[in-house]
C-alpha cells in the first residue's frame, strides 16, 4: 500500500488557490506616478545645484502610460524626490490611460503642469480635455489622474481686457458610445498625438 503524504496533498490543493489570489496583484499596473520618467529633446540644460532640468526642442516626456509633448519642458525635483514638470508650446499636450476604466484622457493647452506627487495636471491657455467622446474647454482645466475628476474655469475679463469666455462642454449620449464587446471590455482606439504646434 502507498502511504499518503498529507503535506504534499495539502500543497497540491492550496497552490492553485494561492496562484489565483497572487496573480491579480502581479498583473495590476502601477500608477504612472510610481514609474520612472523618461525625456527626449534636442537640447537639455541641467542645474544639479537647484535640481532643475530644462529640455528644449520637440520634447517628449513619458512616465508609464502618461505622454506629454511640448516645445520646452522644465522638470524640477523636490527634496523628497518628486518631480514637477512644466510643459510649454504653441500647443502642449498630454495623453494618459485611465486608471479606473478603459480608454484614454487627452489634453491640450499653452502650458501643462504635472505633479508626480499628487498626480494632478493643470492646463492653461485655450485648454481642452477629451475623455472618450466627451470634450470640455476653458482657460484653465485641473485634472486629477487618481480620482479622474476635472474642474474647468473660464478666463477673467479683468485679466484679459475683454469679455469673459464661458466654459464649453460636449457630452455625447450613451447611444453614441460603442456597446461593450462580448468580453464586457470596451474596445479602445486612442486618437494619435500630433507633433507640438500642429493644428488639431
Write up this protein:
With 200 residues, the protein is mostly beta strands. The chain has one domain: Lipopolysaccharide (LPS) transport protein A like domain (lipopolysaccharide transport protein A fold, Sandwich), CATH 2.60.450.10. Helices cover 13% and strands 45% of the residues. It contains two helices and ten strands, in the order αβββββββββαβ. Strands 1, 2, 3, 4, 5, 6, 7, 8, 9 and 10 form a ten-stranded antiparallel sheet that branches. A hairpin with a 6-residue loop joins β5 and β6. The longest helix is centred in the N-terminal third of the chain and has 22 residues, at 6-27. The radius of gyration is 23 Å and the shape is globular. The N and C termini lie far apart (78 Å). Residues 6-28 and 179-191 have low confidence and may be disordered.
Give a quick precis of the structure:
The chain is mainly beta and 200 residues long.
Query: Globular, elongated, flat, extended or rod-shaped: what is the shape?
Result: globular
What is the name of the CATH superfamily? Answer: Lipopolysaccharide (LPS) transport protein A like domain
Distance between the termini: 78 Å
What percent of residues are in strands? over 45%
CATH top level class name: Mainly Beta
Summary tags:
lipopolysaccharide transport protein A fold; mainly beta; globular; 200 residues
Secondary structure elements and their pairing?
Elements: H1 6-27, E1 38-40, E2 43-47, E3 52-63, E4 66-77, E5 83-97, E6 104-115, E7 120-131, E8 134-144, E9 149-153, H2 157-160, E10 168-170
Antiparallel strand pairs: 1-3, 2-3, 3-4, 4-5, 5-6, 6-7, 7-8, 8-9, 8-10
Amino acid at each position: 500500500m502507498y502511504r499518503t503524504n498529507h503535506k504534499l496533498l495539502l500543497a497540491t490543493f492550496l497552490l492553485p488557490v494561492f496562484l489565483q489570489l497572487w496573480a491579480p496583484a502581479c498583473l495590476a499596473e502601477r500608477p504612472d506616478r510610481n514609474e520612472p520618467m523618461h525625456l527626449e529633446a534636442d537640447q537639455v540644460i541641467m542645474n544639479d545645484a537647484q535640481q532643475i532640468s530644462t529640455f528644449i526642442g520637440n520634447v517628449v516626456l513619458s512616465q508609464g502610460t502618461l505622454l506629454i509633448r511640448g516645445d520646452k519642458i522644465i522638470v524640477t525635483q523636490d527634496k523628497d524626490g518628486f518631480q514637477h514638470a512644466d510643459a510649454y508650446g504653441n500647443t502642449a499636450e498630454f495623453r494618459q490611460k485611465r486608471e479606473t476604466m478603459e480608454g484614454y484622457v487627452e489634453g491640450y493647452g499653452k502650458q501643462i503642469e504635472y505633479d508626480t506627487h499628487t498626480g494632478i495636471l493643470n492646463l492653461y491657455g485655450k485648454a481642452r480635455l477629451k475623455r472618450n467622446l466627451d470634450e470640455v474647454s476653458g482657460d484653465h482645466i485641473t485634472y486629477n489622474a487618481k480620482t479622474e475628476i476635472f474642474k474647468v474655469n473660464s478666463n477673467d475679463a479683468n485679466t484679459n481686457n475683454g469679455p469673459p469666455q464661458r466654459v464649453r462642454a460636449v457630452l455625447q449620449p450613451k447611444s453614441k458610445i460603442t456597446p461593450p464587446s462580448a468580453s464586457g471590455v470596451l474596445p479602445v482606439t486612442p486618437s494619435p498625438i500630433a507633433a507640438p504646434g500642429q493644428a488639431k
